[in-house]
Amino acid sequence: MNLGCPTCPDLGTLGDVVYDAGMLIALAEKRPGLALVRHREFGRNGLPVVPAPVVAQAWRGGASHAHLARALKECAVVCCYTELEWRRVGELIGRAELPPKKRPDPVDGLVALTAVEIGAAVVATSDPEDIRAYLAQLPRAEAVVPLRV
C-alpha cells in the first residue's frame, strides 16, 4: 500500500481491524446497534481501516446513511494500492476455495490482503467464510480472525 500519498491516513493512526462492506452496511442501518458498539470498541486501538473500494460497495448516500457517514469519519480509508497489490488480489481470488455458489470478489480479496499487510487482528465482515478463503491464500494470515457482524 502506498500510505505515503496525501489522501491516505498516517500509518501511525491505523488500528488492527479492517472493515469489509458488510460492516459498513451494518453501520448504515437506521439502528446500527451492535455494529456501532463494535465500531466503538474497534476504534480503541486506532482507526479501523477501510479500503476505498469497500466504501463504493456500501455507500448509497442520502440521509439514510448518516450513521455510516459519521462512522467513516472515525476510520482510515485507504485508497492507494499499487498495481502489484491488485495483481496479488487477482492471484489470490483465482486460487481461493470459496463456499459453493460464491463468486470471486476482488474487493473481499483486497480486504484480506490489507489485513495481512497492516498486521490486523480482525476483519469485521458479514461473510467470514469468504474472507477465510482469501486469507488462506496469503502468508502470515493465520493471525487474522474474520469476525461476523
Structural notes for this entry:
The chain is α/β, with parallel strands linked by helices and 149 residues long. 44% of the residues lie in helices and 15% in strands. It is built from seven helices and five strands. The chain has helices spanning 21-27, 33-42, 52-58, 66-72, 83-95, 106-118, 128-135, and strands at residues 14-19, 47-51, 76-78, 122-125, 145-148. The chain has a five-stranded parallel beta sheet with strand order 3-2-1-4-5. β4 (122-125), α7 and β5 (145-148) form a beta-alpha-beta unit. α6 (106-118) packs across α7. The longest helix has 13 residues, at 83-95.
Defining key terms:
15% strand, alpha/beta
Concise description?
The protein has 149 residues and is of the alpha/beta class. 44% of the residues lie in helices and 15% in strands. The chain is built from 7 helices and 5 strands.
The helix/strand class is alpha/beta
Q: Count all strands and give the number.
A: 5
Overall, the morphology is globular
Ranges where pLDDT stays below 50 over 5 or more residues in a row are none
Element string (H = helix, E = strand): EHHEHHEHHEHE
Report mean pLDDT, rounded to a whole number: 93
Percent strand: 5-15%
Largest sheet: number of strands, sense, barrel closure:
5 strands, parallel
Strand order of the largest sheet: 3-2-1-4-5
Q: What Rg, in angstroms, do the CA atoms define?
A: 14 Å
Distance between the termini: 26 Å
Number of helices: 7
Helix content: 40-55%
Topology:
Layout (H helix, E strand, L loop, with lengths): L13 E6 L1 H7 L5 H10 L4 E5 H7 L7 H7 L3 E3 L4 H13 L10 H13 L3 E4 L2 H8 L9 E4 L1
Parallel strand pairs: 1-2, 1-4, 2-3, 4-5
